[in-house]
Amino acid sequence: MLYWDYAAAAPPYEEVVQTMEQIMKQHYANPSSLHRAGTEADRLIKRSREVCAAALGVNPQEILFTSGATESNNLAVKGAALQYQSRGRHIVTTEIEHPSVYESCLQLQNMGWEVTFVAPDSSGMVEPSRIAAAVRRDTVLVSVMHVNNEVGTVQPLLEIGRLVKAANHRTLFHVDGVQGYSGFEPRLGEWQADLYSLSPHKIRGPRGVGLLYVREGVTLFPLLTGGSQENGLRAGTENVPAVVASAKAVRMSGERREQFNNVMIPLRNRLLKFVAGIPELKVNSREDGAPHIVHFSYPGMKGEVLARKLEELGMVVSTRSACSSRLAEPSRILLSMGRDVSTALGGIRISLGDSHTEADIALLEQALLKAVQALKIVEGGMR
Ligand code: PMP
């Protein structure tokens, strides 16, 4: 079996697994406890905050650990909306955000907030001027993802940040950076980002842990109340092994970014070209998209059917993002990119990782050809 679902969950680095085990065994004390073992666990969290902050080019006190990017995104969107509602109750986001941002916005909409969902173009690109045009005096937050998790489009965050702040300097700018970190250096200062979410398990770290950068001076309404952990913004005993292992993954992934791109981009380009050459398939990813995502559709063929056929042939792929893949509806992302329903039902996402080689791509190409041929015959027979 070859695993092509790195964008859903990447296999952890060996160092990450070892760190988790070591910390679980040796540092099980509660970091809030005042005894020596507790203060040692607290020191490990502090150190992890410093490592993550260095990788993001920010201050350690601006890093918050959560239970995952889903929580980070919920906290960024709802925490900002609730905290700053005296400034206004308007939010701007896009139609192609991850459900953890999108559904948070819908929830706020149901509670009386106004949300403007900006549509992308047909390649999944969000036009900065359309975001800026939506910003008003009462806009408290703009949330735009760095890299789309389904098709891999990279958003022009520099321009978006600049235009948002020019339109309203008090509007907060949140970036869901989950799918961008492995391939692109985060430039939080240049993007003028106030909030930034990361998910370690997408970058070969542990799952069930997340990061949220909260720019100094920004406050959020806490969604979890209780103890005073994480600056009072996120109550709950810290997951020390996962936090320490996350810092390891954030550092390692950042250090290996150049190597990751050098390996991944030629493989991605080769695969994109190959898929474009199969007449039944329609490529949905841009050539300048994320180095690890290739998305295409087989219009008229359900994505699940093609994915199952590929799995029979030893290739593990996704139909779309893992969070939405159990939905029977057409992809919200592809529909908002203007694809018809049959194309939006027939998506396949192949996501690459740094363990893949040219030989793996060659095997995947053969399997793709075989799968399409086999399904074409079945489909022809059914007509
Ligand atoms: N945002 C994006 C863009 C994602 O791809 C994901 C993971 N599917 C998330 C947020 C949520 O991350 P987590 O799995 O850590 O909750």
Automatic annotation (TrEMBL):
All residue ranges annotated as the Aminotransferase class V domain in the record: 3-363
Cofactor(s) named in the record: pyridoxal 5'-phosphate
Keyword Disulfide bond among UniProt keywords: no
InterPro entries: Aminotrans_V_dom, Cysteine_dSase, PyrdxlP-dep_Trfase, PyrdxlP-dep_Trfase_major, PyrdxlP-dep_Trfase_small
Segments crossing the lipid bilayer: none
Keywords, in A-Z order: Pyridoxal phosphate
Presence of the UniProt keyword Cell cycle in the record: no
Protein name: Cysteine desulfurase NifS
Naturally occurring in which organism (per UniProt): Paenibacillus borealis
